Amino acid sequence: MRRNGRLGKALVLAVLLGLTMTACFGTAGSSAGGGKPVVFSNTGGALEKLFKQNAYADLSRKGITVSTESPNNEAKLTAMVRGSKPTWDVYYSTPYAAMAKCGTLFEKIDYSRIHTGGLDKSQMTDCGVPVLNSYFVLVYNKDTYKSHPPRSWADFYDTKKFPGTRGVMNFAKDAGMETALLAGGVPADKLYPLDYDKAFATLDKIRKNTRFYDTGAQQTQALQSGEVDMMLAWPGRAYDAVKNGANLGVVFNQPIKYHDVLTIVKGAPHQDQAYALINSLIGTKNQKAVVDQQPYGAANSKAGKTSDAAIGAFVADDTKAKGTVVVRDNAWWAKNLDEATRRWTKWVNG
């Protein structure tokens, strides 16, 4: 026990040292050039490249330099804020984290400084500004199922009628429990609060056939290589796999709608520039660039939809879903994330 205590203290010192080094020497992925700085912690990947080409470039012309760091690690953010020395200004977040940590990890948003035209007011919260819409969808290998493809979450959880390997992200938040309940016959409007026991009873049916993944890159690789036959997928990662040769189909029956938000870190040192960055990211130009090149929906309705059929094939909407879209209850997740995560982890490791 004493040894574990020493290790714990050592880890804390290591984190604090890392934060000090970051504060002194800057963040990874910094944009070139001078000007007023703002530091953005985000998910990286394809979205980061689009942000750099559009939002960051526009800010650079206004004298604001964007530095970036990924992945957007909440543990590191928490250590920064608790140490009263945050080096990040804007943090790419889930809406429920922004709700749960509003006022502790995140500043309350002054919406008089936000260009809210085109935004969905129901997605605007005290500490979170919507930036992206998407859906969890069922993706399958066409070569595996040929003329008998899955058509519902019930099919995803039925390994007798639809044999094969499943892929699921190893996080409670990534819709494993919701889709299991839908597969078990729970009506979409009765989904929350989640019935853990019923969800895991359905998840047990695919436990031996399931591979769990921790990153989007792993998800893409599993789909691309044929390692899994079906995936509870992020559409962007499925689209990437198709670009690399995967032969995939998408089921739009009961897609789980979610959105991401932008937050300002509590005590952020560059708050004026943080507002400028948020406005640039939710602006029509940047939002249009995202939907034109990735299978996501814009948070800003003025950006419209993609005209690229290959991208559109992975974008869920009410028309494709025929009225079956299920909207995630972010208020429930804000209150229950820790318990849901504990239950999920116990099941995965059980």
Automatic annotation (TrEMBL):
InterPro entries hit by this protein: SBP
A Pfam family for this UniProt protein? Answer: SBP_bac_8
The entry's localization annotation reads: Periplasm
Q: Where is the signal peptide?
A: 1-25
State whether keyword Transcription applies.
Answer: no
Asked if Nuclease is a keyword of the record, the answer is no
The lineage's top-level taxon is Bacteria
What keywords appear on the UniProt entry? Periplasm, Signal, Transport
Name of the featured protein: Extracellular solute-binding protein
Q: Which organism is it from?
A: Streptomyces rhizosphaericus
